[in-house]
């Protein structure tokens, strides 16, 4: 490029035996250069800049997360239409704004007045649900006349196929001309408990602190429903499909500024603007933990991603390099993703004291041994207590079969002493003398069945509540409740899980799940420390 090149920034640069690879690069030119034709060119983003004030970012995306008016394109006089299902779900979920079915000639759909187009609704539209033929959509959005903020396009047939790429570009161009930002196409939409907006049925109405961006609608439904039963609650979840207009970094910026979001999860198959994404994470206005589940990290996965959302998925090492320089943790499965976010829903990463030393406490010798192995595999340590902690615990005079060296292995009969309140004495001594970074308690619920009228698990949870108050901030506390799968135990487990969640304790099904989630917290603590040091904080 000769004299036209003023600056070249390559970051990250990966060196290996196979050679040196520039994963991302930024060119700064000395003078404007005319742009030639490009099959991947898109209109410039119309949203707030990355340097915008928090209030500007939050207000810009308010219609997406808290819409006052929703238009439904594809609404039909036949109740089986997918758009009609969306209307019924909105009503059932308690949406209290105005719903405008869009139909060329029907006066009424689903008991609501219908309108022929976006330009004819009584009030401007905050959020449009678009479920009509792909070929019609560009012209329909182009005719919005500035009366629609966001259009979620569920229809497919765009950039996920080679034939649809040109139509996808036209879609975005026409939408911009009509003053509309596009979510998708090829996406299921937005789940926002705060705005009473949903696409899955029976989604939890309670809002929480987890914000999600996903390039898969079906996977998002899994995350919502499976997360619901584990205690996960969301500030919002947005599916973006092909990301033709609104990109992952746009919504990442929203969640970083959103005071109700404490942790962010991203399921991604590709990033079209890697530099904007990386710069936003590296220069984030606030330190919020981010968990990324990346699809398409293998050759076959990349092939599947390209047919799913038209993704051009990147190299796994590039993503790892990006994560290492930012407050980000990478996970590999949906379960790991949900469990990591469950931990972050309750635990605040401590950059000044990354988690390493763990006390493992519960019933079942074999489970304790396997649990120690699980933590070791994740880079965490269940190390024997020092003399002071051991002496203090041994002074409690537990019966034979109880081990207090770490793991603390206590038979059920020990945990039932004082109707379960003995656990409080154990935990007080652990916090006072061992001072671990985290305490992981595990209980085999089946072992407590039929052992008297007292509910020792309930009392143990009361002990946990007291411990959380008495030793607030000293150590992360996590709980694994193991069940044999019987309906009786699973019903009880749900009750115990909700009780623990109410006092800020994440509950997992198995010790390995807990260990992996805590390891994510530890990684984030280390990376947050490096991120803060680099910024002089």
UniProtKB/TrEMBL annotation:
Residues 64-158 form the CoA-binding domain. Signal peptide: none annotated. This is CoA-binding domain-containing protein. It comes from Bordetella genomosp. 10.
């Amino acid at each position: 490029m000769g004299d036209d090149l003023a600056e070249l920034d390559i970051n990250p640069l990966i060196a290996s035996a196979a050679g040196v690879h520039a994963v991302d690069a930024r060119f700064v030119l000395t003078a404007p250069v005319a742009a030639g034709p490009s099959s991947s060119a898109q209109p410039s983003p119309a949203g707030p800049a990355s340097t915008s004030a928090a209030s500007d970012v939050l207000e810009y995306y308010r219609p997406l997360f808290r819409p006052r008016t929703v238009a439904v394109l594809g609404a039909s006089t036949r109740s089986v239409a997918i758009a009609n299902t969306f209307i019924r779900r909105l009503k059932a979920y308690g949406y209290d704004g105005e719903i405008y079915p869009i139909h060329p000639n029907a006066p009424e759909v689903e008991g609501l007045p219908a309108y022929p187009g976006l330009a004819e609704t009584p009030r401007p539209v905050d959020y449009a649900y678009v479920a009509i033929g792909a070929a019609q959509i560009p012209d329909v959005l182009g005719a919005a006349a500035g009366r629609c903020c966001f259009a979620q396009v569920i229809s497919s047939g765009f950039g996920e196929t080679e034939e649809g790429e040109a139509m996808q570009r036209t879609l975005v161009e026409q939408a911009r001309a009509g003053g509309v930002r596009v979510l998708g196409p090829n996406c299921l939409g937005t789940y926002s408990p705060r705005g009473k907006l949903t696409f899955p049925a029976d989604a939890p109405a309670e809002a929480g602190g987890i914000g999600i961006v996903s390039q898969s609608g079906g996977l998002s439904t899994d995350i919502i429903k499976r997360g619901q039963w584990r205690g996960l609650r969301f500030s919002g979840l947005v599916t973006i499909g092909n990301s033709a207009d609104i990109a992952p970094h746009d919504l990442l910026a929203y969640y970083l500024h959103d005071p109700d979001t404490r942790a962010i999860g991203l399921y991604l198959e590709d990033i079209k603007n890697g530099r904007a994404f990386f710069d936003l994470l590296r220069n984030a206005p606030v330190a919020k933990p981010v968990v990324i589940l990346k699809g398409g990290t293998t050759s076959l996965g990349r092939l599947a991603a390209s047919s799913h959302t038209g993704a051009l998925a990147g190299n796994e090492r590039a993503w790892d390099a990006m994560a290492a320089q930012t407050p980000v943790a990478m996970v590999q499965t949906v379960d790991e993703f949900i469990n990591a976010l469950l931990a972050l829903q309750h635990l605040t990463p401590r950059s000044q004291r990354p988690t390493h030393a763990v006390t493992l406490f519960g019933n079942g010798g074999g489970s304790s041994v396997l649990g120690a192995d699980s933590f070791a595999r994740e880079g965490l340590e269940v190390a024997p207590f020092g003399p002071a902690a051991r002496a203090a615990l041994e002074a409690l005079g537990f019966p034979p079969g109880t081990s207090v060296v770490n793991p603390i292995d206590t038979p059920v009969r020990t945990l039932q002493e004082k109707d379960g309140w003995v656990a409080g004495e154990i935990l007080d001594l652990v916090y006072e003398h061992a001072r671990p970074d985290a305490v992981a308690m595990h209980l085999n619920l089946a072992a407590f069945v039929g052992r008297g009228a007292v509910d020792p698990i309930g009392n143990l949870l009361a002990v946990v509540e007291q411990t959380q108050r008495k030793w607030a901030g000293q150590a992360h506390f996590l709980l694994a409740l193991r069940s044999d799968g019987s309906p009786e135990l699973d019903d009880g487990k749900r009750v115990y899980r909700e009780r623990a969640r109410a006092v800020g304790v994440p509950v997992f099904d198995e010790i390995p799940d807990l260990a992996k989630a805590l390891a994510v917290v530890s990684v984030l603590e280390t990376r947050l420390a490096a991120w803060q040091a680099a910024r002089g904080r």
